[in-house]
Amino acid sequence: MAKKSMIEREKKREALVAKYAAKRVALKEIANDEDLPMEERFKARLKLAKLPRNSSATRLHNRCQVSGRPKAYYRKLKMSRIALRDLASEGKIPGMVKSSW
Fold first, then answer.
1. I want to staple 87 with a disulfide (CB 3.0 to 4.6 A). Which of 46, 63, 91, 92 is the partner?
2. 87: which residues sit within 8 A by CB, 6+ positions away?
3. Residue 9 and residue 64: Cα distance in Å, rounded?
4. Which GO biological-process labels does this protein carry (predicted)?
């Protein structure tokens, strides 16, 4: 099980990303528009830089929904390999059987 503080920090980041997503998109469109004057584009870049760092989507890290583990994460299942193996061994995932030879 991951530390509760790390899980909560990631939830806080997700909330910030959702809150500032529209503002970020609008500022990026202005900043990347070649038709606008250079000063206006520069002002948009400055406003973008003043937004909280954790509001950037690239700072998000996928975590297991079961254990909160940040590594060995399967996107399709939204869980780590360890949690997946435990649930498969208990027979809680239909069609999945732990292989052994």
1. 92
2. 66, 79, 93
3. 14
4. translation
The predicted structure's pLDDT at residue 65: 92
In Å, what is the CA distance from 15 to each residue of 10, 89, 101?
Answer: 9, 34, 45
The pLDDT assigned to 96 comes to: 85
For the chain, 101 residues long, the average pLDDT of each consecutive 10-residue run is: 89 96 96 94 96 94 93 94 91 82 71
Residues 14 and 28 in one domain: yes
Domain that holds residue 35: 1-61
- CB–CB of 68/1 below 8 Å? yes
Q: How many CB atoms lie within 10 A of CB 92?
A: 9
